[in-house]
Every structure is written in C-alpha cells, then in structure tokens.
Specification:
Blueprint: H1 9-25, H2 32-65, E1 72-73, E2 76-77
Antiparallel strand pairs: 1-2
C-alpha cells in the first residue's frame, strides 16, 4: 500500500494499467505459455515499482518527522492545515 504522503498511489495505478495493457495488446495468436511469461514478468515489474515507491515514501516521511526535510506532495512543498476553510457552498441532504 502506498502512503498518501507523496500522492503517488493513483499515478502508480495508472502506470501499472498502461504497462499491463501493452502486454495484453501484443498477445495475438493465442500462445498461452508466452502470455503467461509476459504476465509474470509484468507482475514482477509492477510489484518492484510499487515496493520502490513505498520505500521512498517511508524514507521521506522519516526525514519529515525528524525535522530534516519539508514534506512534499506531487513535487510541491506541503504543510499541515491548522484550520480548514469553509466550503463555498452548503452541503445538504434531501429526504425524499
């Protein structure tokens, strides 16, 4: 699981889907053993990329919590919101 601190979960999912779609797009001819090998290789790459992202996120948060680094999300400096601004509209629920 990717921690939300660096905002990478969605990007990782999209990248994995694109990688898988490329494997599936090149599977004409019905060679099931070749497809299984390609899918196994793809899965290993996706798992490695996910693991690498998790470890980078954990390392970054250790540095942030120790006060040695400013938190970042999507490449931009982030800060904790002490107080949330009110929404520009009123949320209501309708009882039908």
């Amino acid at each position: 699981m990717l921690l939300p601190d660096r905002g990478e979960g969605g990007i990782q999912a999209i990248a994995s889907a694109v990688q898988l779609s490329k494997v599936l797009a090149g599977t004409e001819g019905g060679d099931i053993s070749g497809l299984r090998k390609q899918l196994d290789d793809c899965q290993k790459e996706i798992i490695k990329a996910g693991h690498d992202s998790i470890m980078k996120t954990r390392a970054a948060m250790i540095e942030v919590r120790a006060g040695r680094e400013t938190p970042k999300a999507w490449g931009h400096f982030a800060r904790e919101l002490k107080e949330l601004a009110p929404l520009p509209f009123k949320l209501t629920t309708s009882q039908a």
